[in-house]
Amino acid sequence: MIPVQRQYCLSNLRASLLLVALCGFLGTPAAGAQQGARAASDRLVDSLLAQMTLEEKLGQLAQYTGQWVRGRPEITAEHLALVRQGRVGSFLNVYGAAYTREVQRIAVEESRLGIPLLFAHDVIHGFRTVFPVPLAQAASWDAETVRRAARVAAAEAAAHGIHWTFAPMVDIARDPRWGRVVEGAGEDPFLGATMAAALVRGFQGDRPDSLAMLATAKHFVAYGAAQAGRDYNSVDLSERTLREVYLPPFQAAVRAGAWSVMAGFNAIAGIPMHAHRRLLRDVLRREWGFGGILVSDYTAVMELQRHGVAGNEVEAGLLALTAGVDVDMVSGIFQQHLPALVRAGRVSEQLVNDAARRVLRAKAALGLFEDPYRYSDPARERSQTLTEGHLAQARELAREAIVLLKNQDGVLPLRQDLGTIAVIGPLADDARSALGAWAAAGRPEDAVTILEGIRRAASPRTRVLYVKGAEVEGTDTSGFAGAARAARSADAVVLAVGEREDMSGEAASRANLDLPGVQEQLARVVLAQGKPTTVLLANGRPLAIPWVAEHAPAILEVWYLGVQMGLAVADVLFGRYNPGGKLPITFPRGLGQVPIYYAHENTGRPPGEDKWTSKYLDVPVTPLYPFGHGLSYTTFAYQRLRVDRAVIGPRDTLTITVDVTNTGSRAGDEVTQLYVRDEIASVAQPVRVLRGFQRIHLAPRETRSVAFRLAAQDLAFWAPDQGWLVEPGWFTLYVGPSSAEGLETRFRLRAEGSP
Fold first, then answer.
1. CB within 8 A of 406, min separation 6: which ones?
2. How many CB atoms lie under 10 A from the CB of residue 725?
3. Does the pLDDT at position 336 exceed 60?
4. Residue 88: inside a domain
5. In terms of domains, do 414 and 376 share one?
6. Is 322 in the same domain as 367?
């Protein structure tokens, strides 16, 4: 029997003799052979390009989407005809091992050159095994566990025929009205960069020779700064803010080896990103050295017309390609209009060659020229889907992501011997919302709801009552009476409120941040019964809940935690797991504080008692819950903050050490956070910026010395007309459990050559 890779080579003699010669060589290279494999791959790609027509090259730049037919995504007859002509490079929203294998067969056996296809999908936080949403993952402050979750997602997706994911979303978001805050790591570029790199390594693999699937850092760039928090809206910000806040996570993704970057829907200062040559070519490609695929967002090339910078589709395609876009998602403009532009001399064919080369290199890196069917194995699909190991990892990350916001008088954890627990609220038994937005192939029937998790975890002697009480939205209060009765009859109450999963995500911006519908009224009714009550917040963005925060004795932020949500929540409620998550984004007291974030600059009149200072008349200037906040069932003490030297030079690295002690009676996790403030600089600096964190586990009474290393270059800021600048002077260090607490000390950075 001929091995699969040789079958493919022998069936495609039409492509080239060189392709035959290279088959078997482009597989996983042995240690020390990676450079040779890359050279062989480049020779293959160059050989193919030399044989391709202009239409076939542009076909590599065309991506189309599947349509849902008979309960699965399928490709239209029109697009299959293009596949046979070699005029499609990739498909979006098409998966399934058997189906992708058949479509791939058409591409490699019925097209002239037999170039395999890429199948892409939005695998954001899991495939069938749905993990916590990305904002919740960031709340774990555990990059390694996040990396392993992405690895599981890649394994499952690849088993279903997917080569390319449009994740991670690494947009920084400081306005929680924006619905897509749920898809990213929150407000901080340091935390965001850490999570971006971890996710890229998870999706793709840690080494070049273990590529699982292509990761895509999106949406380049500053999409999260949309004006008024409204999705798809324009952005206007300074070069300094762009460099210091919005670009770092993308650069971290590129440094981690991301094969793909997606341009954002937004414009910056009037220039849409899909036409932004300076940022796409000058910064991303030339300055950072990014050599992967730059893919458009859905129909975004066509939308250059609506932005008002292109008069027709021809102009839109011309702008996008020359700006640096390689792959046109869905609109078909590159394929329809660019051949005439190239032949008329308005577009250089070299631009087309360069873009097609990047797509072909990605296919070679995935091993598709060696074996085009390696991602389309039905047996592997069955064995890699929703396994016990995958579910265990999903539960682990879900528990780490839960944030204890408040725990007055030790209401939590719940006792095991409770007679009756009343579970109330519209999100207590909502399996679909447990999955969150962008749940890929996740199914509600796979998810364990909060109610089911509590029922499984409670003692057999405990009676668990359930009353919905109200809908997430609407004005119906008819369920309040039943909720009140259940609360009165219970020894403890669990109230699950928040947002449905479709209230955050793409095209899900909100003008208000309070609990939707009559849920706050429901909370008032339930809390009025005087029973120990825990409020569970299930949501994809920070909510403004000042009344609940003041009156509820215990509050857990549980986000949307995926298929193991109910089990993870129950683990925390009953004390089987001690919560250690921290907020990756600030929670405001009210909408009027937005945007609010910890790393703000001081003003000439910072908040104070005097009337003529920067503050509000009606609410404090401080947040409801600060960035980095999160409690535990135990307590932690910080002592002996020290640095290894008081003065460092511009090439030195400072070591900062602090002793952290678990002063309680339970083992638990603490996220120790390092912040820095540049006291005097030529450009006004934030009051503090995150520069390090570690999640550690401590037994009762255990003390651990936590060390951070801070290089002089970590103190750089973007200066007008100078670029990145490290200025000598005094710096304050803060180490503690959040951005608002901790110990502090100082050190000085000396100038080059000075004492």
1. 549, 552, 553, 554, 555, 631
2. 14
3. yes
4. yes
5. no
6. no
By the 10 Å C-beta count (0-12 exposed, 13-18 middle, 19+ buried), 640 is classed as: exposed
In angstroms, the CA 152 to CA 368 distance is 21
In tens, the pLDDT along 606-633 reads 999 999 999 999 999 999 999 999 999 9
Predicted pLDDT of residue 208? 54
Distance (Å, whole) CA 128 – CA 110: 32
Q: Is the pLDDT of residue 33 over 90?
A: no
Same domain, 38 and 105: yes
Containing 18, the helix (H) or strand (E) segment is helix 17-22
Number of domains the chain contains = 4
Three-state DSSP class for residue 427: coil
Confidence (pLDDT) at 567: 98
Statement: residue 22 has pLDDT above 60: no
Query: Residue 668 belongs to what H/E stretch?
Result: strand 668-678
In the structure, how many helices (H) and strands (E) does the chain have? 24, 28
Q: Tell me if the pTM is above 0.90.
A: yes
* Active-site residue identified among 175, 188, 297, 371: 297
What are the structure tokens assigned to 492, written together? 């403890």
Q: How many other β-carbons are positioned within 10 Å of the β-carbon of residue 675? A: 27
Same domain, 338 and 422: no
Cβ atoms within 10 Å of 379's Cβ, excluding its own: 9
Distance from C-alpha of 152 to C-alpha of 408, rounded to nearest angstrom: 37
Res 24: pLDDT? 30
Report CA torsion sign: 677, 680, 682, 686.
positive
Residue whose structure tokens are 């997706």: 157
Domain extent at residue 674: 636-749
Handedness of CA 304, 305, 306, 308 (dihedral sign): positive
Q: Are 559 and 133 in contact (CB under 8 A)?
A: yes
| Cα angle, residue 143 at apex, residues 138 and 146 outer, rounded to 5° | 70
Q: What is the reported pLDDT for 20?
A: 30
CB atoms within 10 A of CB 511: 9
Contacts 24+ apart (CB under 8 A), 651-654: 651/712, 652/711, 652/712, 653/709, 653/710, 653/711, 653/712, 654/709, 654/710, 654/711, 654/747
Residues 6+ apart with CB under 8 A from 381: 96, 97, 159, 160, 161
CA–CA–CA angle 243, 246, 251 (5° rounding): 75
d(CA 174, CA 162): 32
Burial of residue 637 (number of CB atoms within 10 Å: 0-12, 13-18, 19+): exposed
Q: Do 404 and 301 share a structural domain? A: no
Would 160 be classed as within a structural domain?
Answer: no
- In the residue annotation, 297 being an active-site residue is answered as yes
